[in-house]
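Question thread 4412

I'm putting together a teaching handout and wanted feedback from people who do this every day. The idea is simple: show students a protein as raw sequence, then show them the structure tokens that encode its fold, then repeat with a second protein so they can compare. Below is the first pair exactly as I plan to print it.
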Amino acid sequence: MNERVELLRQRFDIITQNAEKAALGANRDIGDIKIIAVSKIQKFDHVADAVGAGLKYFGENYVAELREKHVQLTEIGVSVPEWHFIGHLQTNKVKYIAEFITMIHSVDSLKLAEEIDKRAQQHERVIDVLIQINTSGEESKSGIEPEDAPELAEKILKLKNVKLRGLMTIGTFTDDESLQRQEFKLLRNTLNSVNEKLGTDLKELSMGMTGDYAVAISEGATMVRIGTAIFGERHYD
């Protein structure tokens, strides 16, 4: 077996065990939680090895890089079960990923949702989306204010080729667990508010990364986005 495949499998097993422990502590089922491998900056053959190690869900931040990896992997016969787009998405870039993307986590405007709907319709697809919420209050972070979520959700729910599944946040980069919990609870409460106001039953909460995914799971995350703990430190050229 390829050494990298075995290393990736070992790392993913450790993450899964930690996630199971966190889920158990919160009286949750690990089967309700997706561990998304954040493969940005990683070479396409590393993603191929991760698929070989049994990983199913991959998150990318940059459209051009995601598109290139998808094409390269397809050419060598590797099919990624699910691609998730987790970075800031410009409306003029949607067309490059609409054909194959499973879920877009970072919808922060009706304009973007409408473009995803348009491109999905062209490919006779329905694309799952999450609304990105700014739970930290940091101006550098994308996402809408929590109180604006019900209004945007109501409008997105009317689109035919987009399926709203829930909410996403990028929390503050901190080791302060109390702050982590505060922001994760805010996202969960925002989802509850959307469901109460609109009579919906949206369930997905995409929150938590390598440094805080166990906390996120304990606070209700259904998706955690993990890069470094799976692939190791990134090396930016």
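The second pair follows. I'd like the answer to focus on this one:
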Amino acid sequence: MSYDTQCGFKGFTAEAARRVFTQCTTDGFAFDFEVMMIFDRLGLHAEELPVAIVNHRDSKVRVARDTFRMLRDISKIKRNAGRG
């Protein structure tokens, strides 16, 4: 089994979603990183459940462009986290 926080399939209680998503500052590739960081900072409990994902289309990720965007977003997230 592999663990993939970036798969995009996540479930939240309504209360956890409200607490986490009201603090998010990005909606790009770094969104999952920010969500998990906020989740941890709030002391919320995460549980992994197995899911089977079938991908029927080619990836639209462009490695050079999207890597730059993700690094930019992570830098922004870290700056915002440092400010509280």
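Top answer:
Good format. For the second protein you could add a caption like this: The chain has three helices and no strands. Residues 63-82 form the longest helix (20 residues).
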